Amino acid sequence: MKVDIQGKVALVTGANRGIGKAIVESFIAHGARKIYAAVRNIDSAAGLVEAHGDKIVPVYVDLTKAESINELAVIASDVQVVVNNAGVLKQTPLLGSEIEDALTLELSVNTFGLIRVAKAFAPVLEKNGHSALVQLNSVASIKNFVDLTSYSASKAAAYSVTQGLKETFKPRGIAVLSVHPGPIATDMSDQAGFGEVAEPTSLVSEGIVNALKAGSFHLFPDSVAKEFESAYQSYAENVIEAEAV
To answer: Which of 11, 55, 188, 236 could disulfide-link to 36, CB 3.0 to 4.6 Å?
Structure first.
């Protein structure tokens, strides 16, 4: 299903910086009517409000707390496009003492957070019609990076959930987009050691606008991601995106 962001009400988690902030700015530039900037610290969205005025509605959310997401779904009852962008990375050696704690945290935010958002907003998106859920996954959801093993595992699980949501939401008239960036210029990329090769956040945000308009399920927005896409495309089209048997 094709979704044009023009005139839409959207919600973006982790909207205060990095890819989330870029998504807000691209959505505004392409005619979004209103955007709920969902953040853990409301004050962190002040810059967006200053730049875009009453088109931005800062709202609290914590993806580890289902009650905060459920409350948000009540507040943002007019939303038509939900972008689940917020995520965490806790880099630790695979056999290190903190690996289980890292994976527990990353699963709680990156995977269970997606499930919580999908459960809370499914009725809202279905009611409002011509709607979409956008999930920020990663190339790490397709290939393990040994120094980021717990993160890769959490994103692989999120990608699997995203595929399930595609099938679950299709009869409800809700489009699903799975976004798989490579190294993008964010604090997380710096933390992971990819700062020197990272590309602009606008590649992701503008890619999302175009992918929604095209009705795509996968988006590989940057040059590294596109290398993955060229190798993965046949499998994605013939297995992942094929009609379920």
So the answer is: 11
